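User: Reviewer 2 asked us to show a designed sequence for the structure in our supplementary figure. I'm pasting the structure tokens here. Could you produce the per-position amino acids so we can include them in the response letter?
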């Protein structure tokens, strides 16, 4: 009977040791899982922080690019306005020159026309005087 009790005590002691070993193993595994979970959370936080920084950098780059495009657009508009103003000034100068030239040619044409009319008038007067003189001579010869 003592042997049976001894054997039962030994089995109980073995079972207790086995349960202690199982508890220790489970505790170690739980600690390992906690460590892995903390590491995973830390990695996720780091990835999120990296992504946030990358998005901030992208937003800054896009803002800078947008500002550059606005500046370039404003500069292009300013250049177009300046070119238009220069062209308008040039066209006004050309128009003024052409007006002066046209007035000059008109004046010359009118002067030539007046001169031609005067010459025609003088020529007609001379021809009429010649006709009158010849008529007088003709009448004198006929009489």
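Assistant: Here is a per-position design you can include in the supplement:
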């Amino acid at each position: 009977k003592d042997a049976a009790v001894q054997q039962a005590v030994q089995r109980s002691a073995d079972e207790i040791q086995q349960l202690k070993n199982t508890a220790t193993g489970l505790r170690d595994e739980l600690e390992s899982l906690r460590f892995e979970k903390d590491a995973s959370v830390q990695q996720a936080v780091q990835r999120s922080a990296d992504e946030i920084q990358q998005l901030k950098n992208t937003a800054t780059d896009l803002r800078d690019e947008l500002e550059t495009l606005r500046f370039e657009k404003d500069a292009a508009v300013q250049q177009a306005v300046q070119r238009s103003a220069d062209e308008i000034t040039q066209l006004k100068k050309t128009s003024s020159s052409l007006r002066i030239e046209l007035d000059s040619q008109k004046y010359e044409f009118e002067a030539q026309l007046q001169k031609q009319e005067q010459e025609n008038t003088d020529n007609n007067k001379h021809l009429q005087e010649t006709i009158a003189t010849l008529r007088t001579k003709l009448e004198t010869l006929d009489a």
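For the response letter, you might also mention the following. The helical segments are 2-142. The CA atoms of residues 116 and 122 lie 10 Å apart.
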